[in-house]
UniProtKB/TrEMBL annotation, chains A, B:
PANTHER family xrefs: HTH-TYPE TRANSCRIPTIONAL REGULATOR GALS, LACI-RELATED TRANSCRIPTIONAL REPRESSOR
Superkingdom assignment: Bacteria
A GO MF label: DNA-binding transcription factor activity
Keyword Ribonucleoprotein: no
Sequence ranges assigned to domain HTH lacI-type in this UniProt record: 2-56
UniProt keyword annotations, A-Z: DNA-binding, Transcription, Transcription regulation
SUPFAM superfamilies: lambda repressor-like DNA-binding domains, Periplasmic binding protein-like I
Protein name: LacI family transcriptional regulator
Length: 335, 335
DNA sequence: CTGAAAGCGCTTACAG
DNA sequence: CTGAAAGCGCTTACAG
């Protein structure tokens, strides 16, 4: 493969001149410049990113995306939305995208990545926030952005919807349409920020409308269909089963509906609202709180790029994006 | 950040000795070696991958995954399955994973990647095969593996299911349960290998069982729900509508069922078999041809690793993986 | 068994 | 306006 040396020789100039011309820097005569460009094209020269990275900032132009290991905790639709958003903004800036996930072995993997120079910045979509890793990144003054509200004690840039508010609004709309027995099923363990925020919005809505908060109406789930079934069964076994449910994920909501069907009940027997929207929720006709994951990913990556472009430590920024409540056939007033 | 120079100084040895010790090479005294290792730990030294890559093979230890742009043509479940498979094998070998997709601007992006030294090998999951890119990769003797049967004229390693055979078997099982009017809806345009292979298996099954092949029973779709609806509407408008259908994707199959429902028909009105299996197909109760995407991804990456480890040109290998036919409630005998 | 030196492909002051 | 030189962080023959 051709190197810059070959290009210089082919064009009959010095290596430095070739570098300048190829990067559009310096003040070369138009003639020399085009002579060099032509030589590069003739040899189909592509710069070696490693050498370039080594000599500039010791980094390669790559953004790293950290997501949960596929198959756990989140819907593939969400994952792909994120990757597509990050990838789009990254590629606009001629950045590559590196994908990795937490492996349960602790955050050391992320730090390896950072120190090896393979990435210039990181975006995180990790439900359980690892404070220690973030602290270390802060100490290193390494650029990163969270696609979620940061955990207590971490000062950094982030982009997210207001989960508590979205949950509050959804609960209120159920109350307003006459429901008084409303259940909540979390998308993940309660120590996950997203679970806690949504739970507190739900609770707040009940209390501010003079409805009792009852723990037996709360189920702790994970992202899959089974956990939706379990939640529904738990709720149906109560003396006074809820008439409305807020599901933590599409698959959970589907599980709830399946559970209803298994008992020979209509899927509109209960009012069901799910977090996250997808073709799935649409085709099942499930009312959904649309979290604009793709937009969150894009905005996060934009913040990251801004931060990378600014070598000095700058103030973290945060963006709160609005969630949209989409009413479909599972939104039924109390009967 | 600490460099190898710092480590050498801290341990009181030469840079060469430090390099040897850190890489477990050369013959150093046990004492010197551990002295160096300890110094590295004390400084929390992480080697700079760029420098290392530059000096060894001009490449960084990264595998590139090329998939279609998210949101087009394929189910996120499939995409995540692939990423998870590639990532798992890659990380076993301490490789990073770089994600990219075709952008419709031609394959030059891939070649940039290759020549920049960012990846040591590529795995492709691309329905429409770009012969020119593959030829160039062959010329460069650059390691890559396809997660699909290669197109005509490309000689390379690949891993795939036998789509024609899977389609044949599914069609035969419909014939055996009494269907004579069987429709086929492709997952993509017909010039995609996967569409063509499945179509030819379907056609072959009909012909070898003395059933006529009728073009009005064939619909050309894409991966989404709408195309399933369209296909069903096309078929239902025929004088003799099919009694059984083979769908190209889960979403297509769901579209077919939705279309049935919209007309007030039971979803078991028709026998429906879908390609690809997912929680979706499971929860809808759609009979499915399970394509082990995750396994395909893993095996492909293993082949790639083998190829990378072997600097000399070696013979391409191919692996055909069996598809599994899973019968669910949409598999109904002819009425 | 260990050290000094060359070199991977590039960029960036610095001379001229 | 252009060239010679140093250097990014590492590894690998090659001396000793």
């Amino acid at each position: 493969m051709a190197t810059i040396k070959d290009v210089a020789k082919e064009a009959g100039v010095s290596i430095a001149a070739a570098s300048l011309a190829l990067n559009g820097k310096g003040s070369l005569s138009e003639e020399t410049r085009s002579k060099i460009i032509e030589a590069a094209e003739r040899l189909s020269y592509k710069p070696n990113a490693l050498a370039k990275g080594l000599v500039t900032n010791n980094k390669i132009n790559t953004v790293g995306v950290i997501i949960p290991k596929p198959g756990t905790e989140f819907l593939p639709f969400v994952g792909m939305d994120i990757l597509s958003g990050v990838g789009e903004v990254a590629s606009e800036k001629k950045y590559n995208m590196l994908l990795d996930w937490e492996d349960g072995l602790g955050g050391s993997k992320v730090l390896d990545l950072v120190q090896s120079g393979i990435v210039r910045g990181l975006v995180f979509f990790v439900p359980l926030n690892d404070v220690k890793t973030f602290r270390t990144l802060n100490d290193l003054n390494f650029p990163y952005v969270l696609m979620s509200r940061p955990p207590e004690g971490v000062y950094c840039s982030w982009v997210d919807v207001d989960n508590a508010d979205a949950s509050y609004q959804a609960t209120v709309s159920l109350i307003k349409s006459g429901h008084t027995r409303i259940a909540y099923s979390s998308p993940a363990p309660m120590d996950y920020l997203v679970s806690g925020d949504r739970h507190s919005g739900y609770r707040q809505a009940l209390l501010s409308h003079n409805l009792a908060y009852d723990e037996s109406y709360v189920s702790i789930g994970d992202g899959d269909i089974q956990s939706g079934k379990r939640a529904m069964e738990q709720f149906l076994s109560l003396n006074e089963p809820p008439t409305a449910l807020i599901a933590g994920s599409n698959l959970q909501a589907i599980g709830m509906i399946e559970s209803l069907k298994e008992r020979g009940l209509d899927h509109r027997e209960k009012a069901i609202i799910t977090f996250d929207d997808s073709p799935l929720a649409e085709s099942y006709g499930i009312s959904a709180i649309h979290i604009p994951t793709n937009l969150i990913a894009k905005e996060s990556t934009r913040l990251l790029m801004k931060r990378i472009a600014n070598p000095r430590r700058i103030e973290p920024e945060s963006i709160v994006i609005g969630a949209e409540f989409i009413i479909r056939s599972t939104f039924v007033p109390v009967r």
